[in-house]
Amino acid sequence: MKRFFFITLMFVVATMIAANYGVYHDSTFDRGTAIFISNMSEEKAYLRVVVYNSTGDELWKNTYRLNLYETILIDLTKIINPDINTWGLVLVQSDQLLSISVSYLQDDALFSRDIITEPAQSSMDAK
């Protein structure tokens, strides 16, 4: 019972202090998005990735555990079926510092890239 309580408490605390990263994705008919997420800390990183469409509906979500300095690839072209509304927000929440690189493809050719190294400010007091 103590172990269950401790694990639940750790999950709640990690959720409350999680950093939020937001990126754009375009998974429409001739476009695709590939996301590289790197753990930049010397501790394991627990993260949740949620993909939304243009109307705010959830398309896909998954959780990951990254070891120290580990990088994963999430290729949305293999996860999401293309549609006219399959573009929108990708929300990444983690308890550690991340570096996110997003590659945008059109007709299987790279046409743009974004790199995110800081979480989004979610406080009303943010400057």
Give your account of this protein's structure.
The protein has one helix at 2-16, and strands at residues 19-26, 31-39, 45-52, 58-66, 71-75, 87-94, 98-106, 109-116. It is mostly beta strands. The chain has a single domain (2-116), classed as TM1070-like (Hypothetical Protein Tm1070, Chain: A), CATH 2.60.290. The strands form 2 sheets. Strands 1-6-3-4 form a 4-stranded antiparallel beta sheet, with no helix packed on it. β3 (45-52) and β4 (58-66) form a beta hairpin. The radius of gyration is 16 Å and the shape is globular. It starts with a helix and ends in an 11-residue tail after the last strand.
Compact description:
The chain contains 1 helix and 8 strands.
Give the key terms.
127 residues, Hypothetical Protein Tm1070, Chain: A, mainly beta, four-stranded antiparallel β-sheet, globular
Strand runs, count? 8
- What Rg is obtained from the alpha carbons, in whole angstroms? 16 Å
* Quaternary assembly: single chain
Helix content: 10-25%
**Count of helix runs:** 1
Output the CATH homologous superfamily.
TM1070-like
Strand portion, in percent? over 45%
Number of domains: 1
